[in-house]
Amino acid sequence: MIRARRSLIALVALLAIVLAACGSSGGSKSAPKTSSTTGFGAAPSGTIVVGAEQDAACADWIDKCAASSWGAWMMQYQTMPRVFDYAKQGSDWVEVPNVAMAGMPTVTDVGGKQTVTYKISDAAIWSDGQPITSNDMKYTATQLASGKNVYDPTGYDQIESVATPDPKTAVVTFKKPFASWTQLFSADYGIQPSHLLEGKNRDQLMKNGYSWSGGPWIAKWNKGVSVTLTPNPKFYGTKPTVQKVIFKILADTAAQFQAFKAGELLAIYPQPEPSAIAAIKGGVPGTQAVYTADTANLEAVWMNNSRAPFDNKVVRQAVAYSIDRNAIVKRLFGDIGVEKPMQNLQPPINSRFADPNAWSQYTLNLDKVNSLMTGDGWKKDGSGVWAKGGKTASFTIESTAGNKRRELTEQILQQELQQAGFKMTIANKSADDLFGKILGAGTYQMTIYAQTATSLNPGLCAVACTSAIPTKANGQSGNNLSRISVPAADPLLATVDSNPDVQARITAGKQADRLLGDDQVSIPLDPLPNIVLWSDRIGGPVADNPVLSMFWNMNLWTLKG
Predict the structure, then answer these.
(1) What is residue 316's predicted lDDT score, i.e. its pLDDT?
(2) Residue 304 φ then ψ, to 5°
(3) Predicted confidence (pLDDT) per residue in 308-331, tens digit
(4) Local structure of residue 352 (DSSP, 8 states)
(5) What does the pLDDT look like over 487-516, one tens digit per residue?
(6) What's the predicted TM-score (pTM) here?
(7) Where are the domains of the chain?
(8) For the chain, N or C: smaller number of CB within 10 Å?
(9) CA-CA distance, 94 to 86, in Å (whole number)?
(10) DSSP element (H, E) containing 149
(11) For residues 481 and 460, what is the distance between their CA atoms, to the nearest angstrom?
């Protein structure tokens, strides 16, 4: 999975699709379970070993190499202070101040400019005892707005200035209205320690791990093997109640699930592989589970719109008409009640900003494939593959090696595309190479991964605006890894980011969806349901957080035995 600063909206009504827990009878719907702390000791003790399905490519969260969601879940969210957390209030997910803040930021108009004032808690300090300050926020904004090889500068590039009237007050003034301001300094990048990094090579100091923290944990990264969290003794919030948390990196979901059943892992956050879904349905004694399709995830077949053959709109459309998305989604997730494909590039909890039918025309239709391809001058060669101008409609798909669900999806796609006259070769890569090198460089043709949003603001501009395409001119910054360029959609996507009028944002978002769908820039598949599994030995408020993952509040977890 890849973290995406394409954001979501606060106060979204969630129509929860939360299904039965492991070991419960039947398949009745229920609210996400949390376990009580009653009977668990409060003193730090013991070790919780959890499973991780991906390693991070690097730990410099600003750099393009830090694309893996797992890197953020294991290290960034555990060590980086931030402005906002995300909590469920009734049926809505809303932004709430992180413990590092003294309260909610305030938004004012100063001389016609949008200004946001942040107050940092007087108690907030780094693990070396130095205070978390407004200069840390200024440093972070500067690095993102003017640095090279930035993962995604959206929003930070709209900042005109960051004033620091005192060490605990930051005043951010925007060049023009930026409605998605709440995405900044939070789950995207957090707040960086200026006293340790300013004037130095940030990437060199952080990319292989770092020893400081402004959160509840200090992280030690053994690349490819594990991430070990130990309590930050200087943490100014609720300190962890266990002595150690170890993320054991196991890329194979089936092996991870077996380790969980054997008690070697006490919690896992597995991708919804067919084998895991089948095992969950069978029940695992002594465990609890929640699985939900109301996620911040959107999994898609992403096409590189700048590389042949997908630089041709006709080919992109013909490929979409070659695929039975309904059958794929039902095959993958039908057992947990998810049977319909996504019809836009927005995650489920952002649905009111999305056109629910933007991709609905793309159903399996081989007559349409033939009409499109022949109309564009293609003819099938002796092997039944479309050819034109001495080149064939052949391409390679690269996704995450060892991911059984994606491998199954690729196999289905390969068969369907072959029948339609396309030759697809499968050449999967490690998550490190795929997310850390290949996607950013744009050397791929087709891939499958899930975008995971990192805030509660709407907006696809970060992944679909022409200006977000990584280029030499912008220092290879930007998160439009599919190199999508639909000029008519760009101003609409910008409106979603900037207009403070919610209805105007909704209208613009739906219009942009229809344009992107007509251009068939990539193929949305599924909402990638979240699965949360944990042992009865773990107490505390364990539940899924669609933005921050199940691990966001591990400082509140307790351990029995």
Answers:
(1) 98
(2) -80, 100
(3) 999 999 999 999 999 999 999 999
(4) G
(5) 999 999 999 988 888 899 999 999 999 999
(6) 0.75
(7) 297-526
(8) C
(9) 6
(10) none
(11) 12
Q: Is 504 exposed, middle or buried (0-12, 13-18, 19+ CB in 10 A)?
A: middle
Peptide bond into 309 cis (omega under 30): yes
Q: How far is CA 233 from the centre of its chain?
A: 30
Both tokens of residue 539? 């107490």
Distance CA 139, CA 331 (A): 48
Fill in the amino acid letter for 122. D
pLDDT surpassing 50 at residue 6: no
Return the structure tokens found at 60: 């410099």
Compute the radius of gyration of the chain from its Cα atoms: 23
Chain segment 261-296, per-residue pLDDT in tens = 999 999 999 878 776 677 677 778 899 888 878 788
CB 440 within 8 A of CB 57: no
Which burial class, exposed, middle or buried, applies to 483 when counting CB atoms under 10 A from its CB (0-12, 13-18, 19+)?
buried
Task: Identify the CA nearest to 268 among candidates 53, 104, 455.
Answer: 53
Q: For residues 59-68, b (16+ Cβ closer than 10 Å) or e, as one string?
A: bbbbbbbbbb
Is the pLDDT at 130 greater than 80? The verdict is yes
pLDDT over 60 at 166, yes or no: yes
- Please provide residue 118's backbone torsions phi and psi, each rounded to the nearest 5 degrees: -110, 135
Burial classification of residue 347, based on how many CB atoms lie within 10 Å of its CB (0-12 exposed, 13-18 middle, 19 or more buried): buried
Q: What is the pLDDT of residue 44?
A: 65
CB neighbours (10 Å) of residue 175?
A: 12
Q: Which fold has domain 297-526?
A: Dipeptide-binding Protein; domain 3 (3.10.105)
Rounded Cα distance, 262 and 343, in Å = 39
- Phi then psi dihedrals of residue 168, to 5 deg: -110, 10
φ, ψ at 498 (rounded to 5°): -110, -30
Distance CA 425, CA 444 (A): 12
Judge whether residue 435 has pLDDT over 70. Answer: yes
Q: Which helix (H) or strand (E) holds 218?
A: strand 217-222
Q: Is residue 456 a contact partner of residue 10, using CB atoms and an 8 Å limit?
A: yes
Closest to 378 (Cα-Cα) out of 304, 317, 444: 317
